[in-house]
Amino acid sequence: MHRVSDLKNFFFILLGFSIPISVAFTNILIVIYTLSWIIEGDFEKKIKKFKSIKWIKSLLFIISLYFLGLLYGDVHYDYSYVLKRVLLLLFFIPIVISELKPKTYILALHAFLISNLISAVVAIGINYNFINPIFDNSAITAFLKYNYHNILLSFSALLSFLMFLKSKSQYSFLYLLLIMIYSYSIFNEAGRAGQLTFNVFFILYAIFLLRSKLKFSILIILFLTFVNFLSYKNSSIFKYRVDNLTHVVQNDGQKKNKNSVEKDIRYLFTKKGLQLVSKKPILGYGTGSFSSVFKKETKTTYDLNKHKTPHNNYLYILFELGFIGLLFFLSIFYFQIKELLNKDLLNTEKILLPSFMLFLMLFDSYMFIFSITLFYIFMYKIFTQLKFK
Q: Which of 12, 258, 299, 358 is spaced 20 to 30 A from 339 at the CA atom?
């Protein structure tokens, strides 16, 4: 069993490297890791730990609600789409209950940062025609879709800054180099969520460091000003995103295109979605119902067949499972934040991860997107175990 345990440590490190660059290989690693965890045995100890983790109960309850949601409502057209993504959350169990070597966490964290570095460099190379596109699909920046790619880079930049602050190594400046490469990729490609989380959380970092490390706060603000100004002047993609978003916000959801009378799709989802939620607020419309109900109840020129979710995780759950489902979903993060703080009350940086995810889910159903879900599960294990001191 000692050999199985060593393999499990290796697979966890490999998972960190795989998530940013290969969905197929990550799928294989999920199966292998889970099988290793089962073969390892010692279930009495695992069950005891399972029972002690409060948020796992909330997790199991929300999964159960999705199955119960098949029993009510008129349509469940996308039920298989939803259940596949919800069941992925069960991978939390073998990950969080596993016992890994202390060295594994730091190696896995750096494997994740290096993999994202490779992804960023490849994306920059493709953008400047130094490297031929790996995939024909223009939505794939390097190895993943542009919006997932940018999110992983955004968190990698924040994580690199955290490691820089805590590192006592003479080579800690390398973390700053990583941040520069990540940010260059983020702001020269599409992916508003990555750009927004990068700005918002670095600003929060600057506020957090005001009293203890004022010079870092000032440098962060100067860095963000420089990055955003330079990107706006030199990146047509970033400029378009900023101008379009500004116009939508200032004009009550109206698209910038003067020939269109249609509201922005996200604005439409939010406004009409909340109207529909108000008709069934407690239990919602049932599992897999969103796209069918929304298309039936909404008059629009948009091709709604392309949209299975309302681009907001909270609204998505609220629509299909009502306030009961949303309450239990939020309780997962409530108990996770408590767990992170209880393990190290003075190390408040640990709540960076759940805070990042909670903010991110305002812009799409990221907790039900394979790469982002796996990223969160993987990183949560590291944040519960690694002492950032």
A: 12
